[in-house]
Amino acid sequence: MVRIRKTGSLYQVSFMPSLFPVNCYIVEEERFLTLIDAALPFSAAAIMNMVKRLGKPIEHIVLTHAHEDHIGSVDRLKAFMPDVPVYISARDARILEGDLTVDAGEAQKPIKGGVPKRMSTKPDVELNEGDRVGSLEAVFTPGHTPGSMSLWDTRNKHLIVGDAFQTHGGMAVAGTFKPLFPFPAFGTWDRETAIESAKRIQALQPALLAAGHGKMVPNPESAIRQAIGEAERKLS
Question: Domain 2-235, what architecture?
Answer without folding.
Answer: 4-Layer Sandwich (3.60)
